[in-house]
Amino acid sequence: MNIPTKFSWLLVALLCLGRPGHTADKADTLHFATESFPPFNYEENGAPAGPMLEIILAACNIAQITCTAEIMPWRRALALGENGHVDGIFSILLTGNREKKFFLSDPIIRTTYSFFALKSAAWEYKTPSDLNGMTIAVYGPSGTSETLNEIVGNAQDVRVVLEVTNFDVFKTLALGVYGAKSAILANRDVGLALLQSRNAALPPSASDILPVGEARQIVYGFGLSRQKASNASHMESLNRVLRKMALSGQTRKILTRHGLQAATKGAS
After folding, report:
1. How many Å apart are CA 118 and CA 113, to the nearest integer?
2. Does domain 111-218 have CATH number 3.30.70.660?
3. Domain residue spans in the chain?
4. What is the CATH number of domain 25-110+219-262?
5. What does the pLDDT look like over 205-263, one tens digit per residue?
6. Which is nearest to 44 in space by CA: 188, 231, 258?
């Protein structure tokens, strides 16, 4: 009689251990890849930091999902995300093109793409026709370069130059390599953060670069790879939390502390 009883208790124990939520499961863990992209995400004391990560970690904590992140070159991060070798990436432009590869979060940060030029160029941007005959540099491939390609489609005789980093774009413009009729397209907050950092590797002439026209308002969020089916439900959970954070004002408070704007208005 004792053998069946012991067997019954063993079976119950095994079933309990196998119940979802009983123990931490890899399905409840998300690993993100990102790049150094100040002021949205960057490295601090050897670890990823920044307002986007703060918001993601806060949402993950409320949704009871363990989330981690690491910084790497953007092209590698994007490829890993698209192939499902990491669960997600940030910060990304929320577009139809991105949605083909990722489950997208709700909009989190509002910002703009702006043209930058040297003061000596005496040039400003108002409409795509202002780009006629210009050389425009941009960091890419990226959401910024995709936007530039859309804009120059309405201009004539525009030469587009892709650079590996935003730093290379600003440095090369400052050195005058692109020529007299040149400018760059960049995220306004990223460009200003780079110029205000007074990076020693930037030439002194970089102090003469300034924003000369807004190209487009945009929003950033994060994405979870479509290569992992479980990410669909994870994103649903995280978006529910993000909406509550936006309404309560939690998201806005985090972004205000970093001098950034929330994509949606919340409580004061």
Report:
1. 17
2. no
3. 25-110+219-262, 111-218
4. 3.40.190.10
5. 999 999 999 999 999 999 999 999 999 999 999 999 999 999 999 999 999 999 999 99
6. 258
